[in-house]
Amino acid sequence: MFILYFSKIEFGNISNIFSSVQCEYQVKRENFPLSFKNWEGGREIEEKVFKNMIRRVLAKADDIPVHENVVNLLYETARVESKAGLYIEQIKGSALGVYQIEEPTYHDLMSWLKYKPERYELVMKFYNKKLSLRDNLRKNLLFQTIICAFHYYRYYKNNIVVLARNKYSRAKMWKDKFNTNVGKGTKQKYMEA
Predict the structure, then answer these.
(1) End-to-end Cα spacing for the chain
(2) CA distances from 4 to 67, 73, 119, 128, 159 (A)
(3) Of 19, 95, 146, 179, which has the fewest beta carbons less than 10 angstroms from its beta carbon?
(4) Whole-model pTM?
(5) Which secondary-structure segment (H or E) carries 22?
(6) pLDDT digit string (tens) for 120-148?
């Protein structure tokens, strides 16, 4: 069982207080019938299972809140990028995994994280040393999730919860910082995923 505590989150004049609100998530082995460290793709991952995996990963990161807005942002990113795990390799391109992360994006993020040693070490705890970098980005869902989470956190920092308040806002965040202006994705595609 994971017990998650939310702290006070402030954004400008907006203040959401989650102090002493306790959310419990039952996580049993039977809820996770797939290997998160060696996902082969070929089918969509059930939403409940996928979101519980995201919560487990976020619970390890002190900087990124385990909040439904953030969980939805990551899950919806996987939905629009890979149909939640159906595809793990881009047909015409170099993007990999459920979030379709390219190696240059990974290296850029890791360069940024090197200046924050505790975050860098956390990311590397999810790295499976038995796999190559390419296979970690393709198959290791836990590693991909922490990479995706820090990619968004890098740009939105402590405002991530407030900015990800609804699906349209999350679509804008995805297009602006994940798919970017060079990507073929659109906010409409995100909304429909």
Answers:
(1) 30
(2) 9, 18, 19, 26, 19
(3) 19
(4) 0.81
(5) strand 22-25
(6) 999 999 999 999 999 999 999 999 999 99
